[in-house]
Amino acid sequence: MREGTELQAFSRFVGALHEVRRGMDGPALLDWAAGELSGIVGFDAAWLGWADTVPPEVDIIGTTMHNLPADYVAFWSEIRNDDLLAADVQSMKSTGRFWAQYDRDGPRQSDGMIALADRYGLRKLSVVTRALDPLRPQLFLSAYRGGAGARSLVQRELQFLSCALDHMQSVLDQEGARDGSFRLLVDARGRPVAGNAAALTLWSGWQAEPKKREPAESFDDFLETRGFNVLASPTALNDGHQLTELRLMPRRVVDRFTAREREIAELIAEGFTHKEIARGLGLAPATVRNQTARIYEKAGVSSRAALTRAILTDQASLQG
User: Fold this and answer.
1) Cβ count near 219 (within 10 Å)
2) Which residues contact 162 (CB under 8 A, 6 or more apart)?
3) Cα–Cα distance for residue pair 220/204, rounded to 1 Å
4) How far, rounded to the nearest angstrom, does the alpha carbon of residue 107 sit from its chain's CA centroid?
5) What is the pTM of this model?
6) Within 54-212, where are the H helices?
7) DSSP 3-state assignment of 316?
8) CB 3.0–4.6 Å: which of 23, 239, 246, 278 could bond 73 by disulfide?
9) d(CA 262, CA 254)
């Protein structure tokens, strides 16, 4: 990246980031960003994802790789206690810096770092992360340059990557869809790595109430009691890791009904009388009246007008 071009390059990256996010889930966005940033800043390979950096050791949550062999994460796991960059990341809270570097030709070495660098032909290794968030893992990017003439990333390049990570996390934390749903990206243990404020608040409430809930109550059960349905979309990542995008959808009034009750409720909202509904569905009028009573009870309303308003409100929210 030529000096003096950072602002224009960053503006283009942010614009493209918002554009591609519309059609990508979280893991796919990581793949895209790794390749895009490699072309902008100029590095040969990258490792991008989330990590829990709370001591005693760094715990990788979910990652993607760019131009690295499939066994990279597994080999790193073997030398993780010798990883000088991981140690630097854990001290970033106290130093106030958000990046660290390792030079294969420099004086600061460990057996594990030498083995890692030599195995994959890496000479200049940099890791950039975000400020520590006590509620969730940190988004990080490890950028690698190889070859005899490789140079370390300079401060303006590190700052560029740091700002890029901030915007990536912000986009992943975007507000819910127009239907009122929220999105939460979690790891295999249910820890959130991305999500808007409302979704993270729900998750924090689940974590904060272990003594108040039944032992067998799942996060899905917890959300259901608070009026949400959950749609899960899991994605497999490197080395057995998995991230799951949860779409938390406010439960509509009609979601409380059986299929037959929903059919009758929607006909009531359209203005049909009990006799008309009974004739159309081939039911006895008394059956329709009994069903209507149950519909009112489940919807928490006491009249046709109130039920109609509730159903129309649901429909309007889905249409944005």
Assistant:
1) 16
2) 98, 99, 128, 130
3) 14
4) 39
5) 0.76
6) 72-79, 84-90, 92-95, 111-120, 155-172, 197-208
7) helix
8) 239
9) 6
Q: 89: buried, middle or exposed (CB in 10 Å: 19+, 13-18, 0-12)?
A: buried
Place of tokens 């130093």: 95
pLDDT digits (tens, 9 = 90+) for 14-54: 999 999 988 788 888 999 999 999 999 999 999 999 998 87
Spatial separation of the C-alpha atoms in residues 143 and 140, rounded to whole Å: 10
User: Cα(137)–Cα(165) distance, rounded to whole angstroms?
Assistant: 13
pLDDT digits (tens, 9 = 90+) for 302-320: 899 988 888 887 766 555 4
Nearest to 283 by CA among 257, 300, 260: 260
Tell me the percentage of the chain whose pLDDT exceeds 70. Answer: 89
Strand order, beta sheet including 99-103: 59-66, 45-52, 138-145, 124-129, 99-103
